Amino acid sequence: MTSGAVSLLAREAVLAAFLVFCRVGGALMLMPGIGGRHIPMRVRVFLALALSFAFLPLVLDQVAPKVRTAGSGDFVFMIAGELLTGLLIGLLARLYVTALQFATSFIAQAVGVSPMPGASVEEDEQLPILATLIVFSATALIFVADLHLELVKGLVDSFARVPPGSLLAVRPALVDLVDQMSAVFLVAVRLCGPFILYSVMVNFAVGLINKFTPQIPVYFVATPFVTAGGLLLLYVSVEPLLSAFLVAFSQWLKAG
C-alpha cells in the first residue's frame, strides 16, 4: 500500500471519528447525570472522546463511505446533522429529568417546604431542597440500575436508524419531541398525583374551617399540620415515586 493510500485512509478515519464525536458529544451535553453542571467540562470532553473511539470500530463501515465522497461544504452539513441528532437524543432523555423536577417542585409546594431553596442537580436554577434531594436520588438510581448503559446502547443503535452525515429530518424530529413531551407530562402528573389530591383536600378543609370560624387564623394554625401530613405522605410514597420514574425511563429506553 502506497503512502498516499495510507494517508487517505488515515484522513477518512480521522474525519469519521470526528463525526462520531459530534453525535456523541451533542448527546452527552444534555443527557441526565452526565450533562449536568456538576460534571466538569473536561471530564465530559474526555468521556465523549472515549465513547467515540469505542463506537468507531462499530460504525466505521457506515461513516467512512459518507466521508470518502464528501467535499468541504458537504462535511460542514454532516457535522451540523450529527450535532443536531446527538442533541435530539440527549434532549429526549433529559425531558424525563425535567418532568421529575417539575413534579418534585409541585410536591415541595404541596407539602409546604418550597420556601427552602436548594441547588439544582442538573441546571443552574434553584429548586426547593426537597426537589433537589429526590432528583439527585433518581439520577443516582439511573446509574445504579445500569440505565446509563442503555443510553450508550441507544447511541450506538442511532447510527443505524439515522444514517451518519445526513441532516436531521425536522418534521419527524418535532413529532418525536412533541410525543416525548406528552409522555413525560403524563409521567409527571402520575408521580405527583397523590400530592395533587392531598393539596386539594387539605386546602378545601382549611378553607371550610376558616369559613365557619373567621375569627381564628386557621391557615397559620394549620400550616404545621399540613406540612407534617405532607411529609408523612412523602415518606410513604417516595419509594413508589422513584420506582415509577425508573420504570417509565427504562421503558422509553427499551422502546427506543
TrEMBL record:
Pfam families: Bac_export_1. The chain crosses the membrane at residues 13-31, 43-60, 75-97, 127-145, 183-206, 218-238. It is a multi-pass membrane protein. Keywords: Bacterial flagellum, Cell membrane, Cell projection, Cilium, Flagellum, Membrane, Transmembrane, Transmembrane helix. Its main location: membrane. It is found in: Cell membrane; Bacterial flagellum basal body. It comes from the Bacteria. Belongs to the FliR/MopE/SpaR family. Role in flagellar biosynthesis. PANTHER family: FLAGELLAR BIOSYNTHETIC PROTEIN FLIR (PTHR30065), SURFACE PRESENTATION OF ANTIGENS PROTEIN SPAR (PTHR30065:SF1). This is Flagellar biosynthetic protein FliR. It comes from Xanthobacter aminoxidans. The gene is fliR.
